[in-house]
Amino acid sequence: MKRMGPKYFLSLFHPDDLPLWLNVSKELMDYISDQVSLEDRKKLLFTYNFRIKNARGNYQNILAHLTPIEFDTFGTPVMAISHYTIVGEGVYKPIIGAIKVLNKKNVYETIFYKNYSKEVLSNKLSKREIDIIQELALDRSSKEIADRLCISSHTVDQHR
């Protein structure tokens, strides 16, 4: 790593994942530059995943969560607190990129979600529908979901 730097790190990526991961990174940055206010950028959480080769030569799935903490003069994140989790060694996981923003109730809401590995049903759902599905999976009522996401329970029922 000392000798080759980022080139070494990138050489460990699964060859199928590297172009997807680079595309995820670009699209996430483009999205916040075009769609997210400067104030909301301080409330973002980015998630994405990739496979990287471990010391035994096996590919590990890495799930990355990044919270921006420093921004350049254009409001682009340049430093983040990162948390990486190893999930399911050897099991293929599709490459997914997402951005969430912290709402007034301190609940993260999805504002961007895309599966880069293939066209799937989740790519056809709205960000709000994805948030509601996640809340339903936690066995929350329409009223609870509406309160957490700052929307009406009728909207939750419509998406449901």
Largest sheet: 5 strands, antiparallel
In whole angstroms, the N-to-C terminal distance is: 49 Å
Tell me the Rg in angstroms: 17 Å
Mean pLDDT: 86
What is the percent of helical residues? 25-40%
As a percent range, the share of strand residues is 25-35%
What's the shape? Answer: globular
Provide a brief overview of the structure.
With 160 residues, the protein is of the alpha+beta class.
Mind explaining what this structure looks like?
The chain is an alpha+beta fold and 160 residues long. It contains 5 helices and 5 strands, in the order H-H-E-E-E-E-E-H-H-H. It has a 5-stranded antiparallel β-sheet. Helix 4 packs across helix 5 (153-159). The longest helix is centred in the first third of the chain and has 19 residues, at 17-35. The termini are far apart. The mean pLDDT is 86.
Descriptors:
160 residues; alpha+beta; 5 helices; 31% strand
Topology:
Blueprint: H1 6-11, H2 17-35, E1 44-53, E2 59-71, E3 77-87, E4 96-102, E5 108-115, H3 127-137, H4 142-149, H5 153-159
Antiparallel strand pairs: 1-2, 1-4, 2-3, 4-5
Helix pairs in contact: 4-5
